[in-house]
Amino acid sequence: MDEKLVSAWDSAASLAVNLPATLWMLLATFLVFIMVPSIGLLEAGLTRPKNVVHALMKSLSAVGVMSVLFVLVGFSLSFNPETIGGFIGKPFEFGFGAGLETAWPVAFDSKGTALNGVPTSVFMLFQTMFAAVTLALIGAGVPERMKFGAWMLYCVFVSIIVWPLLAHWVWSPNGILGTLGTVTGLLPGLGVKDFAGGTVVHIQAGVAGLAITMALGASVKRRQTLTLRFRPETGGGSVSRIRPVDGDLAGIDTAKEVSEKYGYSLPLAVVGTALLWLGWFGFNPGSSLDLTRQSAMAAIATNTAAAAAGMVALMMAKWLDGKWDPVAAISGILGGLVMITPNAGYVDALGSIILGVLAGVVTIVAMKAMDKYLYHIDDPVGGFPVHGVNGIVGTAIVPLFANPAVSGISQAGFFYGGGGSALTWFFLQVVGVIVVSVVSFAASWFFVKIAESFMAVRASVSEEVQGLDIADHGVEAEVERISA
């Protein structure tokens, strides 16, 4: 006999537990978990040797902090159908481990009535990993300068405030952005669509990382390079816009600091990228919440977009710089994965190729533009161009490529005959992108500014030059061995 549980959305209804969906979501959860240490490996591979342990510890702590706080309050604030005005879920229905004996709906009939579900505990664990990945991605975007104690406090801040807000707005059944078409009357029954995290995860991560790097100011290495690049006597202008770091450079070998190259281990970064690609098969297809044709199409879209974007970025690097640049390939693959994330369950195979090609171009152009025009923003891992820009573009264009034969959404995308309604949907998506971007930036920027009033957020000059592996963790990634 099929097990039945009370519906998490309606206590008067019971839902049969969908066993295949339950097994699929557990597998997807474990795949998404792989992404967390993989992000650490990616950052460690692209950073300098003296900050490798710090990179790995940020990822490890992200899943540690988020896993506890999500059970206590984050899940209820994020996904509780009992909403406070569409802005935040009520904190107690699913708080402190309550409500997990229910079933979370995953399959619906044509009228939107829930047919079956998975144990709410499984859905909660799946979303815990998404939240942890978001934190880990933010950490990767702010390498080498943020003190670990400040990072831990930031993890708490995001876990109980920022992530629940954005997730509720977009993904909760009654979230303000997810129902924006109905709320505004512009497109009843539709709102901002984000299949697997283009807004909630990638825009948040990319923009938050940008905000923190801007609030902290450029690294010592970048400051000195800027001083050389913009030295007034050369006619290159002033560097007064570059925020000084705490402390002075007396006694610091700045030439050595500038000469230390990023890229501790490109093989490590490649392995991290490959494992992220693997984890994305849980991230995107798993977001279907059930084993359906949509799951399969999401898997195909994920793989195809990543491959296309990586190859396009690699060829562009060869064309522009004359080298088959492995960092360009890594960035392109990740850019393709980000671009397809909000679209994965809505597009066909051809659409995924187009989006992958677009992501490869967008990634390289964004990285080049950032290096030229935002040089004083120190982002050696490429968090903003890869995640922020691709997340923004990918989310905005969902209404252009959505194929109703794949998506299950009655509204067709513009290129599939959606007409004026698709353009209205596009407007709603852009509104969602702007709102999430502004909130993500403001929350992280103000966190740094407020936290600086009572704790050390940025490493001092001496700590930064020494490296945060020693300064914060008291260890080095590589220990010199002395033979007897």
Summary tags:
484 residues, mainly alpha, Ammonium transporter fold, four-stranded mixed beta sheet, two-stranded antiparallel sheet, 18 helices, globular
Task: Describe the overall structure.
The protein has a single domain (about 5-475), classed as Ammonium transporter AmtB like domains (Ammonium transporter fold, Orthogonal Bundle), CATH 1.10.3430.10. It is about 60% helix and about 5% strand. The protein has 18 helices and six strands. The chain has helices at about 20-45, 50-80, 120-140, 150-170, 180-185, 200-215, 220-230, 255-260, 265-285, 295-320, 325-340, 350-375, 385-395, 400, 405, 420-450, 460-465, 470-475; strands spanning about 5, 15, 85, 90, 105-110, 115-120. A hairpin with a 3-residue loop joins β3 and β4 (about 90).
Topology overview:
Elements (H helix, E strand, L loop, with lengths): L3 E3 L7 E4 L1 H28 L5 H28 L3 E2 L3 E2 L13 E6 L5 E6 H21 L7 H24 L8 H5 L13 H19 L3 H10 L24 H6 L6 H18 L9 H29 L4 H15 L8 H25 L9 H14 L1 H4 L2 H4 L11 H33 L9 H6 L1 H6 L11
Parallel strand pairs: 2-6
Antiparallel strand pairs: 1-2, 3-4, 5-6
Give a brief outline of the structure:
Helices cover 61% and strands 5% of the residues. It has helices at residues 19-46, 52-79, 120-140, 148-171, 180-184, 198-216, 220-229, 254-259, 266-283, 293-321, 326-340, 349-373, 383-396, 398-401, 404-407, 419-451, 461-466, 468-473, and strands at residues 4-6, 14-17, 83-84, 88-89, 103-108, 114-119.
